[in-house]
Amino acid sequence: MSPVKQHLLRIAVSHNRSASLSEEEFHEWATKEHCAKAARIHARYGIEAYGMIFSSASAQATAKNLNRQLGGRWTVDDHDVTVEFYLRSVNELTTVLADPEFKALQEEEEPYVSGENIVATLGWVETYVQDGRVVNLDTAGSPIYPGFDVLADFSNEEVNRA
């Protein structure tokens, strides 16, 4: 079982499209105009991975149906897109946010992205299956990640680079 290559953090920010755009128009703008520019900026600052998860009305309806089948305990997220960043340190993201080119790119979002009901999450990633194989478990089947007390302390940048 492969060892942890690196400890990654994940920040996800969920947005809705502007009410004036169709799902298709929003997707076209995001993928053809926004993502390529943003990707170059994120790579420049060492972001490990950057991507967007699009959730169409059809996808949301499917999730709601799954939820009903499982007893209705989920709150199904109704955001149009969730932007995910995988990084080694919160400092990498704060450096991106300070970049003048990135700030200009964010200003271009206004006619496309609703400024309402934005939701963000931040946490660390523990991967246990990768490329179809079990990873990050020792021979006894225990995770090889540091303990919760170490991982949960986001004030410690050493942890974020571990």
From TrEMBL:
Domain EthD: 20-114
UniProt cross-references to InterPro entries, sorted A to Z: Dimeric_a/b-barrel, EthD_dom
Domain of life: Eukaryota
One Gene Ontology molecular-function label: oxidoreductase activity
Family: Belongs to the tpcK family.
Protein name according to UniProt: EthD domain-containing protein
Source species of the chain: Aspergillus avenaceus
Lineage of the species this protein comes from: Eukaryota, Fungi, Dikarya, Ascomycota, Pezizomycotina
